[in-house]
Amino acid sequence: MTDRMHEFSDAASLASALADEVAARLAAALRDRGTASIAVSGGSTPKKFFEALSTRDIDWSKVTVTLVDERFVPADSDRSNHRLVQTHLLKDKAANARFLPLFYDVASIQDAADKATEETAGIDNPFDVVILGMGNDGHTASFFPHGNNLAQAIDLSGPRGVLTMRADGAGEERLTFSFASLSDARFLALHIEGQGKKDVLDQAKAGSDENEMPIRAVLNRAATPVDIYWAP
Hints:
232 residues, alpha/beta, Rossmann fold, 3-stranded antiparallel beta sheet, 8 helices, globular, hydrolase
């Protein structure tokens, strides 16, 4: 699959440009189908992008926001992607969006995955927008190198929905949408910043082992061209 590189001079310029593009994609979906959907990633990188997107003037009341992946921690945890999105995206104009979490306070992480799969099943397929990040180990979503459910997670013939992941590099157990759920998004972006991440991306492109660097599955097999947004 092809990818398209968009380079910016700084993180603020990237955040503004990506917010403009995403808002345009969501607005187009609203015009075409009356609803729109976006799945976003956590970590520190997307904060500026979330802040910019929250100010864009679209009919957020008809937009469903969910997470690409989540740690199995309560929503008020400092480690929660839910909390990150609540703080930086679901405010201003975007406060009216419908948010579907992946974490649920249930007996087990598998119960949470089942509940999240059920709750998100009503989102139209494919997603209108998916924003991925990438770790220095080459993981994306919660597709971690040698994760216990990695083969299932990156299998495009597998079911849509949310599954669990444990890996040495993951810290907490994770909940993650399967690659089958994400790969055909109408707009599929990889948002990375810093020379270190660019070097990791170049390393991923130079090799083929998806277990070693799962971002390769996205770059090699996504059904949609991957738009890479990068700033130093």
